Amino acid sequence: MRVSTRQVQKQNTRKKIMETAYSVISNKGFSVPSSVIAEEAGISHGSIFAHFPTMNDLLNNLLSDFGDKMGARLHMLAKKSDSVDNLLKEHLKVLEEYEAFYSRLISEKNRLPDEAKTTFAVIQSTLALHFSNVIEREISKGTVRKLPTHMLFNTWLGLVHYYLMNKDFFSDGNESVIKNYGPELLSFYLKMIKNERGVYE
Amino acid sequence: MRVSTRQVQKQNTRKKIMETAYSVISNKGFSVPSSVIAEEAGISHGSIFAHFPTMNDLLNNLLSDFGDKMGARLHMLAKKSDSVDNLLKEHLKVLEEYEAFYSRLISEKNRLPDEAKTTFAVIQSTLALHFSNVIEREISKGTVRKLPTHMLFNTWLGLVHYYLMNKDFFSDGNESVIKNYGPELLSFYLKMIKNERGVYE
Amino acid sequence: MRVSTRQVQKQNTRKKIMETAYSVISNKGFSVPSSVIAEEAGISHGSIFAHFPTMNDLLNNLLSDFGDKMGARLHMLAKKSDSVDNLLKEHLKVLEEYEAFYSRLISEKNRLPDEAKTTFAVIQSTLALHFSNVIEREISKGTVRKLPTHMLFNTWLGLVHYYLMNKDFFSDGNESVIKNYGPELLSFYLKMIKNERGVYE
Amino acid sequence: MRVSTRQVQKQNTRKKIMETAYSVISNKGFSVPSSVIAEEAGISHGSIFAHFPTMNDLLNNLLSDFGDKMGARLHMLAKKSDSVDNLLKEHLKVLEEYEAFYSRLISEKNRLPDEAKTTFAVIQSTLALHFSNVIEREISKGTVRKLPTHMLFNTWLGLVHYYLMNKDFFSDGNESVIKNYGPELLSFYLKMIKNERGVYE
DNA sequence: GATGAATGAGCGTTCATTCAT
DNA sequence: TATGAATGAACGCTCATTCAT
Asked: Which of A8, A26, A114, B3 is exposed most, by the fewest CB atoms within 10 A?
C-alpha cells in the first residue's frame, strides 16, 4: 500500500514533468531549457534528472508517447472512415487536438534526436495506411481521380503542414489554424481530387 | 582615396561574412556558432560584430538579401512563363539553385528573428503574383480547372516544401530532393489541376 | 522483545551498509556515489543517512573498523613471529587479504576525512610495534644489520606501498600485486637488511 | 608587431592559467574546481576554456609539461652524478623543488587521465636510467652491494614516496618533508646498500 | 526505522558579445 | 577598421542530503 502510494506519487511527478514539457514545448519550442520546464512544473531542476537521465531521454519519451497517442488516435478513425471526406475530416480533428505540439514536431524535427524521426514516421505511416485504403477504394469506385496514391497523400499532408508551419501567417496569436482553415483545406482538396463529372466542365 | 579604399575593404569583409554565413548555414543550419562562421570566412570572430551589432542583425541582413535575391530571380521567370508548366518548371530550377539555404529557412523560420518571416513573405508573394497571373489566365482559357488560386498556390508550395523538409526521408545524404523528385512533383501537380478533357472522363 | 528485534534489524542494516561500502570502495575507490553503495547493498539510498548522518561519518566508521580489524589481524601475527622472515611473510599474507581496500586507503588517504589518518596510524603503529620487537631482537642477535629500526620499518612499508600504489604498472587487471611480487620483495628486503657473513664479502 | 604582442598576451594568460593551476593543485589537490583556478588566476571562468578545450586537456598539458620539466631536470643530474651519493643527493634537490605537485601526482595518479601515468613513467624512467648506470658502476667497483638494480631503485623510490605521501605524518603544516628528512633518508639508504667492509662486522 | 522522491548547490562547458590594442 | 582574447550568463547534469510517508 505504502509502496504503491509512493509509486503513484513518483508517477505523478513523472507525468507532471512530461505534461509540462509537452505544454511548454508546445508554446516555446523544443529548445526550451530544462530549468524552465522544472520551474513551470513546480519542481526542482534536479528532479527532472531523477526521472530522466538526460534531456534527450525526456524528449525521446515525450516523442514516443506522442507518437503512440496520436498514432492510436489515428488508428481509431479507420472505423469511421468509409470515405475520404470522413477520413480527412477526422484527421483534421485529430490534428486540432494535437496542433501545437505537432506543429513544433514537424517544424523542428530535423534538429531533434532520431526518435523524432521515428515518431514522425509512426504518425505518418499510420495515416498513410488508412488513407491509401480509403483512396484506393474510392479510385476503383471512380469517385476519386486515378492518381498515384502516395502523391495524393503527400499533397494532403504537404498542404496541411504548410498551414501548420506558417500558422503566424494565417492566424493571429494562438488561434488554431486547423479550426480556422481546416474546412477550406478539406473542401478544396476534395474538389481537387474528386472525379465529379460535369462540375468543372 | 584612402577612405574609399577602406570602404571598399569594409564592404568586401561584410560581403565575405554574409557569403560565408550563407554557405555555412546552408550546410549546418542556423544554430551554427558565430565563431564557426568567422573561422570559415577567414576573418576574426570580432569582425562579425564590427559589421553587425548582433548575430540577429547579421541574420536579418542575410535573410533580407536572400529574399531580395531569390525574389528577383523569381521575378525574372515571369517572362518565360507563358504557361503554368513553364512557370513551375522554372520555379523548381530556382529552388534547386537555392535549395540548401531555402530548406533551412522554411524549416527553422519559426525560431528565427522576425525578418525571417518577412523574407519568407517576400519570396512567397513574388511567386504568388506570377503564379496567380498565369493560373488565372489558364483558368479563363479553360486549361486549368476553376479552383481558388490561393489554394492552388498553397497546394503547390505545400507539396514542394513537404519534400524539402523531409529531404532525409526521400533522398540519401546530400542529394537534391528537387533534382530527384521535381519532375514527378510537377507532372503530378499539373495532372491534378489541369482540365484535360477526355482523360478522366 | 520487539524492540530488540528492531535493534537487531537495525544493526544488520548498518552492517550491510558497511560491508557493501567496503567492497564497493575496494573495487571503485572512495569517490563512489552513496547511491551506488545503497543500490549494491540492496537498501534504500536514504537508509545510509538514517544510520550515518553524513557520508563522512560512514567513511569514518568504515575506516575505524578497518583499522581495528586489520590492526587485530596484525596483532595476531606477533605470536608466530619469532623472526623477521616470518613476521614479514605474515604481514604480506595480511596485506593480500585486505589488498584492495588497503590500496585504496593508502592511495586516497589524503583526500579523506581525518579519520583516515588515524586508521592508517593504527595499522602502521601496530605493525611497527611487532616489527621493532622482532627487529631489535635480531639486531642484538646479530642476524640483522645494526640500522635504525624506524628506518628499516619505513623502508619495508615504502617498498610494499610502492608496489600497491603502482599496481597497474606491475600487474595487469585485477591480479594481486602482493601475490605476484610479495616473495621477491621479501627475499630482497631480507637480503638487504640481514647480516649474512660471508655472502657479500 | 601587434600580432606578436597579442600572442604574447595570450601566452601570458595561458601561462598564468597553467601556473595557477599548478600551484592551486599543489595546495588543494587535483579535484579543485576550474572556477577556483580561474578565480585564483584573476581571470574569468570561461577564459580557461578559451585556452583549453576541457579541464582534462589542461591537466594533460600540466602533467606533460611537468614531466618534461622534471624529466629534463633529472637528466641534468647525470653529469654531476659520479656516485650514488651524489645522484641521490641531487635527486632529493629536484624533489624538493617540485615537492608539492609531485606529491599530489604520485598520490592521485590513479584517478587522473592516462597522461598522468605517462608523466609518472617519464620521470621514473629518466631517473631509473641514471640510477642504474651509476649503481651498476658502483656494484662492479664493489662499493655497492650486489643486489638487483631494479629492486634497489624501487626501494629508494618507495622510501622517498612513503615520506612524500605521509607528509602530514612526518612534518607539520607546509614544511618540506624532503628538506626535513632527505638527509636521513639518504644516509640510511646508502648505509643499507653500501658494501662498507669492516663496518658491520 | 526505513523509504526513496525531491532538492539545490555546484560542476564542466558553450558562445554571443565586448573592448583594448 | 580589424583583431581575437577575455567575458559571464546560461546550459545540462551530478550527488550528498532532506523529509514526508
From this structure: B3
- What tens digit of pLDDT does each residue of D149-180 get? 999 999 999 999 999 999 988 887 778 999 99
Backbone angles phi, psi at A144, to 5 degrees: -120, 145
Q: What is chain B written as a DSSP string? A: -HHHHHHHHHHHHHHHHHHHHHHHHHHH-TT--HHHHHHHHTS-HHHHHHH-SSHHHHHHHHHHHHHHHHHHHHHHHHHH-SSHHHHHHHHHHHHHHHHHHHHHHHHHGGGS-THHHHHHHHHHHHHHHHHHHHHHHHHHHTSB----HHHHHHHHHHHHHHHHHTHHHHS-TT--HHHHHHHHHHHHHHHHHB--TTT--
Which CATH number is A56-198 given?
Answer: 1.10.357.10
First to last CA, chain A: 73
Q: Which amino acid residue lies closest to nucleotide F3, measuring CA to C1'? A: B44
Q: Say if CB C91 and CB C74 are below 8 A apart.
A: yes
Residue D197's φ and ψ, nearest 5 degrees, are -55, 145
Q: What is the pTM of this model?
A: 0.90
Mean per-residue pLDDT, D114-128: 91
Range in A110-124, B97-111, C70-84, D106-120 the model is least confident about: C70-84
- H or E segment and range at residue D110: none
The domain segmentation of chain D, as residue ranges, is 1-53, 56-198
Mean pLDDT over D3-12 rounds to 77
Check if residue A40 sits with its Cβ under 7 angstroms from strand E: no
What does the mean pLDDT of chain B come to? 90
CA–CA separation, C95 and C72 (whole Å): 13
D and C in touch (3+ CB pairs within 8 angstroms): yes
Rounded CA separation A78/B31 (Å): 40
DSSP string across C105-148: HHHHGGGS-HHHHHHHHHHHHHHHHHHHHHHHHHHHHTSB----
- The average pLDDT across D27-44 equals 95
CA distance A154 to B131: 21
DSSP string, C62-91: HHHHHHHHHHHHHHHHHHH-SSHHHHHHHH
Give the C-alpha separation, B47 to B110, whole Å.
27
Show residues of chain C in contact with D163, CB under 8 Å: 154, 158
From the Cβ of D34, is strand F under 7 Å away?
Answer: no
Is any atom of nucleic acid chain F found less than 7 Å from the CB of residue C28?
Answer: no
Measured between beta carbons, the chain D residues lying within 8 angstroms of C109 are 165
Nearest Cα residue to B70 out of B15, B6, B119: B119
CA distance B42 to chain A (A): 27
Distance CA C165, CA B128 (A): 76
Strand, helix or coil for residue A74: helix
**B38-83, pLDDT tens digit by residue?**
999 999 999 999 999 999 999 999 999 999 999 999 888 877 778 9
- Looking at residue B3, its pLDDT comes to 52
CA B47-B53-B55 angle, to 5 degrees, is 85
d(CA C43, CA C37): 9
- Residue A172 pLDDT > 90: no
Is the distance from CB of C24 to CB of C36 less than 8 angstroms?
Answer: yes
Asked if CATH classification 3.40.50.12780 holds for the domain at D1-53, the reply, yes or no, is no
